[in-house]
Amino acid sequence: MQTNHTLAILEQKSDAEIALAIHYLDPEFSAEAREEEDGTVLGIVMSSVRWLTGTLTYLSLYTRTL
After folding, report:
1. Mean pLDDT value across the chain
2. Hey, what long-range contacts does 15-20 have (CB within 8 A, 24 or more apart)?
3. What is the mean pLDDT of residues 35-55?
């Protein structure tokens, strides 16, 4: 009975209200998600820089031998 009542209340709430309630109950939740996203972005940027550096090095060595 309690589960049906809880589901009915949740269906009436908007996504923003639910997110606000989660943030109120666990303020570290959103901070942890942001840290994970920062790590992903950093990984993508570092991989791109390595790829670009390798490509430019290869091209410079290739054109030097011509």
Report:
1. 78
2. none
3. 86
Number of domains in the chain: 1
Which residue stretches of the chain are H helix?
2-12, 15-25, 28-65
Band (pLDDT 50/70/90 cuts) for residue 2 is low
Query: What is the rounded CA–CA span in Å between residue 7 and residue 22?
Result: 16
Both tokens assigned to 3: 């589960």
Q: List the domain range (segments joined by +) for residue 50.
A: 2-65
CA distance 17 to 22: 9
Residue among 44, 20, 45 nearest 30 (CA): 20
